């Protein structure tokens, strides 16, 4: 019948309007007092009705899979062997897959021989062109580019400030683990180590100091903050945590034998396939 959709929309608006006042009565003026606890009540999942976020004084926590502009992962400053080193190997895959072609990479070269080396000398992303699709992060074979949660990037000079260079793009690995603990953990399972692939290989070959302590693993997803993860994935994530325990504190993950690592990798891929089948 004509107009049914319109009537439904109006009823929804009316319901939100009424629920706002019911919520007001339930929490009283507590709800509008500016304190962290009360903000939690107002922005909580139990709150009903129309709510207003007093931005920028108040900010809603973004879900873990929220993505804004890309960042480049570098080793933490306190890393025992690779402090500050880029995870990026300047392979150029992200630039190739980027739909609006807003990534520019200059590959580094050896100053003596002039031969190319797997390090980016320069890396630029035009964030005005970036459409936040996340393809670059999905395709990077080294987990070196990730989608950030920082959305406050406005400036008065977009011609220069909105072209992010390598310095601006680089953020430590610990930052990525803190904003996306579940994803970082899943990636670690697939990689078989908390470390960069190359660092793990070097360590296996005994070229780097195998006695150096491994950085502290990130908090387990299950024990992480109430950042939201899709409900459909939470069960799979929970079983992942249960079946594949992270490396013990202080242990170097790559010191485990290949069979164990392969087993973890196989399970992670199976989970991915199951999720893809569910979504497909
Ligand atoms: S795909 Fe990853 S490793 Fe390759 S250039 Fe891009 S960020 Fe660097
Ligand atoms: S998020 Fe998408 S548009 Fe932005 S740099 Fe990555 S691939 Fe390109």
Shape, per Cα inertia axes: elongated
Order of helices and strands: HHEHEEHEHEHEHHHHH
Main beta sheet: 3 strands, mixed
Amount of helix? 40-55%
Strand content: 5-15%
Mean pLDDT: 79
Distance between the termini: 33 Å
Unreliable spans are: 212-256
Q: What is the CA-based Rg, rounded? A: 23 Å
* CATH architectural category of the largest domain: 2-Layer Sandwich
- CATH C-level class of the largest domain: Alpha Beta
| Number of self-contained structural domains | 3
Bound molecules: iron/sulfur cluster
**CATH topology annotation of the largest domain:** Alpha-Beta Plaits
Strand arrangement, largest sheet?
4-1-6
How would you classify the helix and strand content by structural class?
alpha+beta
Provide an overview of this structure:
This protein has 280 residues and is an alpha+beta fold. It folds into three domains: 1-59, no CATH class; 61-178, 2-Layer Sandwich (Alpha-Beta Plaits); 180-280, no CATH class. The chain is 40% helix and 11% strand. It has helices spanning 4-27, 36-43, 93-97, 135-139, 158-161, 166-169, 173-179, 181-191, 197-205, 231-243, 258-279, and strands at 70-74, 103-109, 116-126, 145-147, 163-164, 170-172. The strands form two sheets. The chain has a three-stranded mixed beta sheet. Strands 2-3-5 form a three-stranded antiparallel beta sheet. Strand 2 and strand 3 form a beta hairpin. Helix 7 crosses helix 8. The two termini are 33 Å apart. The model is unreliable at 212-256 (pLDDT under 50). Bound molecules: iron/sulfur cluster (2 copies). One iron/sulfur cluster (SF4) is lined by residues 70, 98-100, 102-103, 125, 130-136.
């Amino acid at each position: 019948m004509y107009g049914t959709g319109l009537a439904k929309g109006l009823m929804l608006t009316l319901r939100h309007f009424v629920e706002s006042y019911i919520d007001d009565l339930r929490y009283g003026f507590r709800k509008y007092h500016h304190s962290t606890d009360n903000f939690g009540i107002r922005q909580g999942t139990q709150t009903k009705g129309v709510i207003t976020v007093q931005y920028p004084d108040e900010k809603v926590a973004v879900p873990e899979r929220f993505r804004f502009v890309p960042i480049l992962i570098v080793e933490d400053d306190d890393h025992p062997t690779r402090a500050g080193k880029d995870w990026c190997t300047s392979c150029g895959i992200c630039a190739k897959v980027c739909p609006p072609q807003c990534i520019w990479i200059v590959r580094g070269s050896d100053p003596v021989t002039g031969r190319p080396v797997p390090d980016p000398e320069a890396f630029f992303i035009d964030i005005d062109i970036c459409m936040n699709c996340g393809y670059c992060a999905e395709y990077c074979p080294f987990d070196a580019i990730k989608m950030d949660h920082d959305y406050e990037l406005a400036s008065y000079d977009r011609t220069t400030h909105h072209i992010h260079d390598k310095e601006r793009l680089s953020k430590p690995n610990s930052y990525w683990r803190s904003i996306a603990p579940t994803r970082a953990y899943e990636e670690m399972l697939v990689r078989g180590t908390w470390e960069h692939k190359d660092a793990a290989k070097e360590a296996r070959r005994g070229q780097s100091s195998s006695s150096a302590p491994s950085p502290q693993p990130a908090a387990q997803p299950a024990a992480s903050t109430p950042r939201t993860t899709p409900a459909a994935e939470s069960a799979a994530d929970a079983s992942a945590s249960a079946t594949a325990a992270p490396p013990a504190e202080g242990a170097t993950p790559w010191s485990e034998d290949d069979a164990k690592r392969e087993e973890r990798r196989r399970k992670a891929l199976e989970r991915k396939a199951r999720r893809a089948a569910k979504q497909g």
